[in-house]
Amino acid sequence: MNRKMQRNSNSVRKRLLLKSIKAFIFIGLPIILFGFTFQLKNLTIQGSSRNTPEQVKEQIIKTKLDSNALLLYLKYTFFTDVQIPFVEKVDMELLSNNTIKVRVYEKMVTGCVEFMGEYLYFDKDGYVVESSSKRLEDIPQIIGLKFNKIILHEKLEVQKEDLFDVILNLTQLIEKYQLEVDTISFNNRYEITLQCGDIKALIGKRSTYDEIIAELSGILKEAQGMKLDKLDLRNFKDGKGTIIAIPENPTD
Nearest Cα to 199, choosing from 183, 214, 188, 212? Predict the structure, then answer.
């Protein structure tokens, strides 16, 4: 009786071992081969200026499965959006079994306002696209806008709708002439002051700002090394008028 039970026990163990071997051959081995074949070894990042490649990688590769090139490609191509600050979307290209190229498309940011300790960045139409405690040095802060509420992904409600056209025109010109502008300030008459490093440039209120920004660019280049506090260009128009340069700590 004991021999019969032992034979049955050995037979059961053999069947279980055989099933385990078959399971490994048909399931486990393909998984191992799949993981080895598509092991992610190279991830190249293009188009990211506001986040370092390392920061982008940290936001993309979050689980062990993300270390598989094919699974990573399928995940972000068909199923999941990448959530990265100041990034609109990313496109992935599977170059080989082990290499993925990531193309980053950043959000178009025109300016920012400070609200309750946060910087809220908006696009050319005035829609808030990002909120961050981080102040981007290349994006001018807008001062003098009045608003009752600020909601992410909604439009800023300010005192004059066409102010966003003015801001867009100014930021485009600032970029064109490669000016370093920290703030764009509006007073209650909508006259504009630009903070260019240590120099305040009073440019007033105009229908267009192309001429005055071009003039300001030339003046700032000539004034390099000079200790100036203000440049008053409010009376300069059509190539005529006075430009007043006020030095730092002027003496009486």
Answer: 183
